[in-house]
Amino acid sequence: MKQTLVFLAAAAFTAACQKKEEAPPAPAQQPAAPAAEAPEYRAMDMVPSAGTINGTVSYAGSQKDTMEILTKDQAHCCKDCKGNQRPAGSLVTSGGKLKNAVVYLYTDIKEGKRFASESVTIDNHMCRFEPHVAIGKKGGTLVGKNSDPMLHNTHLYLAPENKDLINIALPQQGQAVEKPLKKAGMISVKCDAHEWMQAWVWSGTHPYATVTDDKGVFTIDQVPPGEYPVKVWHERLGEKAGRVTVAPNGTATVDFAYADQS
Predict the structure, then answer these.
(1) Given phi > 0 = left and psi -120 to 50 = alpha, else beta, which region is 69?
(2) How many whole angstroms from its chain centre is CA 161?
(3) CATH class of the domain whose range is 43-69+91-111+208-262
């Protein structure tokens, strides 16, 4: 009897194993579908019911523009120097209004006006970058130009990490070289041959960004109606944030004020 029970248990175990082996294989796991890419910005010939944002950027603090020291090529580049120094252009005010501040809509607008240009040019002139602050387009181009009779280069870094992006060699006067502008964000521009030279390019995914003029004034036009976060950036004073509501066919105002921290 005992042998019979052992035999039956073994037979049951064998049958269970065979059943398990004969079970159909589980379907192979399908690879996950790739995430949909964010749609590209769509430029419109006319923005329906578009409005305008106006404003000023002011500075009431005590900081002054720094002086840059020209350590080489003074015969050509130092015609407006006192000794071998001249204003760097890093903090320029007039009547308390701030020049060269970047004002932009801090949002991912998917459609609206066209970019003013597909490219931005940074000229090496009198051992300065001109303009000091500019607006570019991610996916557009940056043109490095040399108007001086000596070697320059236009070296781009993505701020604030200072990530190396593009280095354009410009050994000849009159030379201009075009490179793709692949990254969005604030880009620092330097010349390795003249360490005092500095410029900035705001590379945007949409065209709703501008730079204040010498009276601290800015205008952003052809804005689709809506409520937007707005930011201002300055190379020495940092960022400030605000909000603005643009009514259909309306004009909105937003002002920014910097002051020294106590």
Answers:
(1) beta
(2) 12
(3) mainly beta
Same fold, 43-69+91-111+208-262 and 115-206: yes
pTM of the predicted structure, to 2 decimals: 0.84
* Alpha-helix residue ranges (DSSP H) falling in 32-180: 74-77
Radius of gyration of the chain (CA): 30
Question: What is the spatial distance between Cα 70 and Cα 93, in angstroms, rounded to a whole number?
Answer: 23
**Chain centroid offset of residue 48 CA:** 27
List the pLDDT tens digit at each of the 262 positions of the chain: 444 433 334 444 444 444 444 444 444 444 343 333 446 899 999 999 999 999 999 999 999 999 999 999 999 999 889 889 999 999 999 999 999 999 999 998 999 999 999 999 999 999 999 999 999 999 999 999 999 999 999 999 999 999 999 999 999 999 999 999 999 999 999 999 999 999 999 999 999 999 999 999 999 999 999 999 999 999 999 999 999 999 999 999 999 999 987 3
Q: What CATH code is assigned to 115-206?
A: 2.60.40.420
CB 71 within 8 A of CB 84: yes
Read off the tokens for 35.
Answer: 């995430």
